[in-house]
Design goal:
It is an enzyme of class 4 (lyase). The protein is α/β, with parallel strands linked by helices. 36% of the residues lie in helices and 23% in strands. The strands form two sheets. Strands 5-6-7-8-9-10-11 form a seven-stranded parallel β-sheet. A four-stranded antiparallel β-sheet has the order 3-2-1-4, sandwiched between helices. The protein binds 2-succinylbenzoate and magnesium ion (MG).
């Protein structure tokens, strides 16, 4: 049995640039891969790296694809996929999920029971955007912080909390952009609204693990690690070091789906699944994992497909 392998680099413009503590993100590039088996059955996969988040770069992913043969026998395809190095986590996800797609029928796919979190724009733009998402059924929102001056952001948070309906929940995502003092200010503030704030995501940079562990023991507002657990190795590491609060998992860059399943089944961790702004191809594979492995009924950070202008290009 033989598989035909091909791939293509695609790029899409965000409807509105994504602004985080890391800067302004305007264009999403990824690699779409295609496997065709001998019967002509086609399966897609997506490699959507975010190098500033700890995955490989797009160039490294493309280099990996370039060195693969265009025709792969079934004996070696599993070999290849199992041997993708850990420094290429987005490739591990793309290839393994493409192969899984070939092996199963799609009717088993059902993630309609999941709740979704909607992503608000940073800054005061959040104040006139949540209504739109609320109308579409979102009850959980995520707002980026650590982007503007903290006094200004804390004032916007007050307004946002006043405006949001009783049952709405809010997550704050600092993308590692706070210092110790700012993190404490935010956590103190959030402790005053225990029914409104679900958690603060990645308050401090990745190298400040023990400080975040300390903060999570001191404040009642939950802390979710995101950048700190971008890949499976990091996830395993933070778990070993005693993290028992929330873990954000971005399947698109975390690495091998089968290894992720194993980890989640072995350890009862509190997880939030989240997108890497992938196309419908990566999204479907990621949501499948979210449906299987989500815990505590936490909303998944996958908004709707309104991130990009235009439709998904032909591949
Ligand atoms: O998690 C979500 O709710 C949306 C996705 C998201 O915020 C995100 C998307 C791409 C890269 C980084 C992040 C992030 O959580 O920091
Ligand atoms: Mg985050």
């Amino acid at each position: 049995m033989k598989y035909q392998f091909s791939f293509r680099n695609i790029s899409q413009k965000f409807t509105r640039p994504v602004i985080t503590n890391h800067g302004v993100w305007e264009i999403r590039e990824s690699v779409i891969i295609r496997l065709i088996d001998i019967k002509g059955k086609i399966s897609w996969g997506e490699i959507a790296p975010i190098s500033w988040f700890g995955s490989e770069t797009l160039e490294e992913a493309l280099d990996f694809c370039h060195q693969l043969p265009r025709e792969i026998t079934s004996e070696i395809i599993f070999e290849i996929i199992l041997k993708i190095p850990d420094k290429l986590p987005a490739c591990q996800f793309g290839f393994e999920s493409a192969l899984e797609n070939l092996q199963e029928n799609h009717e088993s796919l059902n993630y309609h029971h999941l709740n979704f979190s909607g992503l608000l724009p940073a800054g005061k733009a959040a104040l006139n955007q949540w209504q739109n998402l609320w109308k579409q059924g979102y009850k959980t929102f995520k707002w980026k912080i650590g982007v503007n001056d903290i006094t200004e952001e804390l004032a916007i948070l007050n307004l946002l909390i006043d405006q949001l309906p009783e049952s709405a929940k809010l997550r704050l995502d600092a993308n590692g952009g706070l210092d110790d003092n700012a993190a404490k200010l935010w956590l103190e503030k959030c402790d005053n609204f225990p029914n409104k704030i679900e958690f603060i995501e990645q308050p401090l940079p990745v190298d400040k693990f023990s400080e975040m562990l300390e903060l999570s023991n001191y404040y009642s507002t939950k802390i979710a690690l995101d950048e700190s657990v971008a890949t499976l190795q990091q996830l395993e590491n933070c778990y070993q070091q005693g993290w028992r609060s929330i873990f954000v998992i971005k399947p698109g860059i975390v690495g091998s789906p089968s290894r992720l399943r194993k980890f989640c089944q072995q350890h009862q961790i509190d997880v939030v699944f989240s997108s890497v702004f992938e196309t419908a191809i990566g999204r479907q594979a990621a949501l499948k994992l979210a449906a299987e492995l989500s815990s505590n009924n936490r909303a998944v950070g996958f908004g709707i497909n309104h991130y990009f202008t235009g439709s998904i290009p032909n591949v």
